[in-house]
Amino acid sequence: MPENEKLNQHLYEKMSADQDKYRDWLTSQPPEEILNHAYEYSVREDILMAVEDMSLPADKVQALLSSNAPLDEIYNDFSQIEGDHMDIIRGCIETRANDLIEEKYRDEAALRTPLGFVEAHRTDEGINFTIYDINFKAVDNGIMENSRISAYEAAEKVWLDNGLSNIMIADREELLQKVQEVENGGKNLDELEQEPPTIPPVYVETGAYAREHGELDAYRESAKLNRECAHAIGDYIRNNYRDNILDDSGIKDVIDKFGADRVQTVLANTIQQADWDGRYSRDNKAWANTFPALSDNAYDRVTSHPCLVDGLTDMVRRHLREAEKIAEKPSIREQLKTIAKELEPKKQKTKVPDKGLDI
Questions:
Q1: Which of 178, 225, 337, 345 is the most exposed place for a label (fewest CB within 10 A)?
Q2: Which sign, positive or negative, has the C-alpha torsion 184, 188, 193, 199?
């Protein structure tokens, strides 16, 4: 055996003997103490394995043989640079997490930030993505044609490209269910199945016209709904007027039941038939005259106090204007960019010194 190989073998045997002594001492300790030294034992075993595989030059072997406890000293040196070892471990943790994400979210993914959500899924064309705001309304969509990236990576890229961070994984199925409910007016599929049939439109022609054109059924059905709507508005006023205040929290229910067109038409018809009454505002009279007159039938009109009908007309018009604003489609991507820009740190600047009803 060559001399240098003999020296390396001698070094290994010396360090192996030291490890045997350490093992005998460790196995004689209580379980808690053994656990405390488990990491050290494992590293010493790795050092011993490395020495067995290496072929050090003679001068380095002799230097190590001159030490009384080379294994202890090498371990102590290693423990001083444990940070590098922990960096490797941290890298392994992140790599495993990334691999799991890649495997689980390759074809479908959803991510969220404080500003909203992005959903992505794989199709034949690439990765389709849709951006939703915090109210689950779609504000943008598109396709990434890079088929090599996962749906998760595509969704993450959408947020990062918009300058957003603090990204977290979201439940895609739950997100899509919320989006569906918003699109259905806040109702889930079970509730939609229980919804009544579509409300018939307001019939504005006369009875004679309906008879002549074979539309009497539509005329009679619409007239019946007009009377029911007028009664419902009267009931609403009676049940929600307290202490000179008309509560508006439930007017949406009346509008949803009879439709915005019918509620407005009945109110407009009520005001038209009393155009002489100064208790109706000029604005509401002008508004009412934009609707076709239904008839001079009192059953098609609201019989509540004119001041309350005028106030409820204001309420309905305001509610419908707000509903139109909410229904307006937001600008694509620009809204998201605007919100992100508003959240950017701003530079400090020097500071320079309902009407009541009198019934």
A1: 345
A2: negative
